[in-house]
Design goal:
The complex is a heterodimer.
Chain A (H helix, E strand, L loop, with lengths): L4 E3 L2 E4 L5 E6 L6 E8 L3 E9 L2 E4 L8 E5 L5 E5 L8 E8 L8 E2 L3 E5 L1
Parallel strand pairs in A: 2-11
Antiparallel strand pairs in A: 1-3, 3-8, 4-5, 4-9, 5-6, 7-8, 9-10, 9-11
Chain B lengths: L2 E4 L3 E5 L4 E3 L1 E4 L6 E6 L5 E7 L5 E3 L5 E5 L4 E6 L8 E7 L10 E2 L3 E6 L1
Parallel strand pairs in B: 2-12
Antiparallel strand pairs in B: 1-4, 3-9, 5-6, 5-10, 7-8, 8-9, 10-11, 10-12
Classes of the chains: A mainly beta, B mainly beta.
Chain lengths: ~110, ~120
């Protein structure tokens, strides 16, 4: 079946602009996660959704970062007033209720802030 | 808090020879452990998982890993490397708090396979 999809695959933006990254999880997966992969920091957890609520937002690095999920499906990660240190690959993953740690990842969105 | 250490940032092997990617974990509980693989410009793919059943876990593409509690290790092995195995491999541990879902990733090991 279809895996996790993310769009866009690449995004180049100017410093100070806002960006939106989209994630479409595997059908039937109620949990959705956002991670960030950068050269200096490795892979870091950002936020976790169960349904439309976010029980764990502990990884969001600043209040410029926010995320929402609607209809228990698609999620959008928004970064306001982007900074160069936001440049990274943003990965989305999803999992079923019975296997919360077996997370299936999308191909990622490569964000470059110039 | 849990942590995971991948002992080698780069490993180079010849095609047809065995692969060993080393991982040690630290936790005060019995974690779930995973290996993920990431091919260039691709997403992360789950290779295998350990969830307190059999200590020797078999995964996809001929990979396997052995959970050794006494050594707090979860090394990934493959008897014979193939060119297509060249990728980055991540050892991953589940969170201690079962209410949380954030996986902790190791820093990664880049596997190079020489012809």
């Amino acid at each position: 079946g279809a895996g996790v999809s993310q769009s866009p695959s690449n995004k180049v933006t100017e410093k100070g602009k806002d960006v939106e990254l989209r994630c479409d999880p595997i059908s039937g997966h109620t949990a959705l996660y956002w991670y960030r992969q950068s050269l200096g920091q490795g892979l870091e957890f950002l936020i976790y959704f169960q349904g439309n609520s976010a029980p764990d937002k502990s990884g969001l690095p600043s209040d410029r970062f926010s995320a929402e999920r609607t209809g228990g499906s698609v999620s959008t990660l928004t970064i306001q007033r982007t900074q160069q240190e936001d440049s990274a690959v943003y990965l989305c993953a999803s999992s079923t209720p019975g296997q919360p740690y077996e997370q299936y990842f999308g191909p990622g969105t490569r964000l470059t802030v110039t | 808090a849990q942590s995971v250490t991948q002992l080698d940032s780069h490993v180079s092997v010849s095609e047809g020879t065995p692969v060993l990617l080393r991982c040690n974990y630290s936790s005060s509980y019995s974690p779930s452990l995973f290996w993920y693989v990431q091919h260039p410009n691709k997403g992360l793919q789950l290779l295998l998982k350990y969830t307190s059943a059999a200590t020797l876990v078999k995964g996809i593409n001929g990979f396997e890993a052995e959970f050794k509690k006494s050594e707090t290790s979860f090394h990934l092995t493959k008897p014979s490397a193939h060119m297509s195995d060249a990728a980055e491999y991540f050892c991953v541990v589940s969170p201690q708090d079962t209410g949380r879902r954030a996986l902790t990733f190791g820093s990664g090991t880049r596997l190079q396979v020489q012809p």
